[in-house]
C-alpha cells in the first residue's frame, strides 16, 4: 500500500511540476497559448496559478507564481515521499530542511531538462516529417536558446541539422550522470544519523 501511494504521489507531483514549468517557460519564451498544448497547460494549472497571482506578483515578464508553486509542489512531494518511506528521517533539523529544499530545486531542474528533451525530440521528428506543423513554433521557441550555440559549432551535414540530436544526447548524459546521483545524495542528507 505504501509503495502504491508513493508511486501515485511521485507521479502526480512530477506531472503538476511539469505542467507549472511548461506554463512558466511558454510564457517566458513569449509563446502564445493558442495551440492545443498551451490550452492544455492553462486548463490544468489555472486553478492554482490564478489565485496565487493575487499574492505572488510577476518578476518582470516572468510568471513567478507558476515557478514558486512548482518549487513548493516539488518540496511537498519529496517531504511526503520521505515521510511515507520506511527509513527514519529527521525533518526538524535545519540541515535536513535545506537538503529537502535543494532536492526540490533539483527536481525543478530535472523536470526542466525533461521538458527541453521533449521539445527537442518533437522538433527533430516534426522537422523531418512535417516542418510546418503548428507545434513547430512552440518547439523552436523552447529549444532555440540551447540550439543556437550548438549551431555555431556544428554546421548542417548535407543540409541536415543534427543539433537537436546532439542536444538530446547532452540532456540524457547530464540527467543520467549528474542529476540522478546528486538527487540521491541530497535525500540521503535528510536521514537520521546512525
Automatic annotation (TrEMBL):
Superkingdom, taxonomy of origin: Bacteria
Keyword terms of this UniProt record: Membrane, Transmembrane, Transmembrane helix
Transmembrane feature ranges: 7-25, 65-83, 153-179
A cellular-component GO term for this protein: membrane
Name assigned to this protein: YggT family protein
Lineage of producing organism: Bacteria, Pseudomonadati, Pseudomonadota, Betaproteobacteria, Neisseriales
Amino acid at each position: 500500500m505504501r509503495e502504491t501511494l508513493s508511486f501515485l504521489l511521485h507521479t502526480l507531483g512530477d506531472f503538476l511540476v511539469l505542467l507549472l514549468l511548461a506554463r512558466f517557460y511558454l510564457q517566458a519564451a513569449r509563446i502564445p497559448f493558442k495551440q492545443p498544448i498551451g490550452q492544455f497547460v492553462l486548463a490544468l494549472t489555472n486553478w492554482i496559478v490564478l489565485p496565487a497571482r493575487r499574492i505572488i506578483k510577476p518578476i518582470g515578464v516572468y510568471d513567478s507564481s507558476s515557478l514558486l508553486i512548482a518549487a513548493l509542489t516539488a518540496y511537498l512531494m519529496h517531504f511526503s515521499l520521505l515521510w511515507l518511506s520506511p527509513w527514519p528521517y529527521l525533518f526538524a533539523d535545519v540541515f535536513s530542511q535545506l537538503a529537502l529544499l535543494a532536492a526540490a530545486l533539483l527536481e525543478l531542474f530535472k523536470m526542466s531538462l525533461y521538458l527541453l528533451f521533449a521539445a527537442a525530440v518533437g522538433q527533430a521528428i516534426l522537422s523531418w516529417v512535417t516542418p510546418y506543423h503548428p507545434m513547430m513554433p512552440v518547439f523552436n521557441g523552447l529549444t532555440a536558446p540551447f540550439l543556437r550555440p550548438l549551431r555555431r559549432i556544428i554546421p548542417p551535414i548535407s543540409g541536415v541539422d543534427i543539433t537537436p540530436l546532439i542536444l538530446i544526447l547532452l540532456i540524457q548524459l547530464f540527467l543520467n550522470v549528474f542529476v540522478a546521483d546528486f538527487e540521491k545524495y541530497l535525500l540521503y542528507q535528510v536521514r537520521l544519523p546512525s
